[in-house]
Amino acid sequence: MVDLLGRWGFLKEAEEFIDKIEVEPNAMIWANLLGACRIHGDEKRGQRAAKKLIELEPRNSSSYVLLSNLYAASGLWDEARSLRRTMMQKDIQKMPGCSWIVVGQITNLFVAGDKSHPSCDEISLALKHLTALIKDNTFHDFLG
């Protein structure tokens, strides 16, 4: 319910819902509110959600990153930098993003920033070429 209200921008109602539910709100509930606050630019409510989230999961980097992104989106660069410094002081590190793709019957895992693949240079060159085609609006010619 918090996610639904938050996606539609009903942040006050989402927070009121959290306050009224009979169960103790878990980290996922607070993370949903924090994410919605970032999307809709509600910095004060986002701070409250982040505080609750950090109380529940003090070593989870995602709450710090979400709050930092909220600060940055609101133009609060000093607060964003301060929060990143806090993460460094507490040795809380952001986990790199990862994706996977299945080609044939083989699952390939990709981690952001990983350059260990033996064909990394060729892959990067192909991606740069495709990006240039897309920017030049000639990608449809490439497809035939």
UniProtKB/TrEMBL annotation:
<dbReference type="InterPro" id="IPR046848">
    <property type="entry name" value="E_motif"/>
</dbReference>
<dbReference type="GO" id="GO:0009451">
    <property type="term" value="P:RNA modification"/>
</dbReference>
<dbReference type="Pfam" id="PF01535">
    <property type="entry name" value="PPR"/>
</dbReference>
<feature type="repeat" description="PPR">
    <location>
        <begin position="60"/>
        <end position="94"/>
    </location>
</feature>
<dbReference type="Pfam" id="PF20431">
    <property type="entry name" value="E_motif"/>
</dbReference>
<dbReference type="InterPro" id="IPR011990">
    <property type="entry name" value="TPR-like_helical_dom_sf"/>
</dbReference>
<keyword id="KW-0677">Repeat</keyword>
<protein>
    <recommendedName>
        <fullName>Pentatricopeptide repeat-containing protein</fullName>
    </recommendedName>
</protein>
<dbReference type="InterPro" id="IPR046960">
    <property type="entry name" value="PPR_At4g14850-like_plant"/>
</dbReference>
<dbReference type="InterPro" id="IPR002885">
    <property type="entry name" value="PPR_rpt"/>
</dbReference>
<dbReference type="GO" id="GO:0003723">
    <property type="term" value="F:RNA binding"/>
</dbReference>
